[in-house]
């Protein structure tokens, strides 16, 4: 069976985003968006994401993200239609992994 193309007559663009979920002592569920990308109709849909850095500054309530041994990454996307509702679709797979003890910091301002 061939995959169905996601871009049809009513798809203007895709909004892709990668989020991390994790638990801390003070919060059962923490979520942070690590990366996002807009893919317009007609653009290359095969993404090369090697060595991608986080796009956003994020603040970690209680430092529960750094050195956490159970972070779940989820890829989600919105199909932005030319007309109609804006559905939210979450990827069917999840990846859990430990985060590093320390982070690299760069100044982008």
UniProtKB/TrEMBL annotation:
Transmembrane spans? none
Stated name of the protein:
Signal peptidase complex subunit 3
List, alphabetically, the GO terms of the cellular component aspect: signal peptidase complex
Q: Which UniProt keywords apply?
A: Endoplasmic reticulum, Membrane, Signal-anchor, Transmembrane, Transmembrane helix
Q: What does this protein do?
A: Essential component of the signal peptidase complex (SPC) which catalyzes the cleavage of N-terminal signal sequences from nascent proteins as they are translocated into the lumen of the endoplasmic reticulum. Essential for the SPC catalytic activity, possibly by stabilizing and positioning the active center of the complex close to the lumenal surface.
Q: Which GO terms describe its biological process?
A: protein targeting to ER; signal peptide processing
What Pfam families does the database record attribute to this sequence?
A: SPC22
InterPro entries reported for this sequence: SPC3 (IPR007653)
Q: What is the membrane topology noted in the UniProt record heading this document?
A: Single-pass type II membrane protein
Q: Where in the cell is it found?
A: Endoplasmic reticulum membrane
Family the entry assigns: Belongs to the SPCS3 family.
């Amino acid at each position: 069976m061939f995959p169905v193309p996601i871009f049809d007559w009513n798809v203007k663009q895709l909004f892709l985003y990668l989020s991390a979920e994790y638990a801390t002592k003070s919060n059962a569920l923490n979520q942070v968006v690590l990366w996002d990308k807009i893919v317009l109709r007609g653009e290359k849909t095969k993404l090369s994401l090697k060595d991608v850095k986080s796009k956003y500054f994020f603040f970690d309530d209680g430092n529960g993200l750094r050195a956490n041994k159970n972070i779940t990454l989820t890829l989600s996307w919105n199909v932005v239609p030319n007309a109609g509702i804006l559905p939210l679709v979450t990827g069917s797979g999840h990846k859990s992994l430990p985060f590093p003890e320390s982070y690299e910091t760069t100044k982008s301002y």
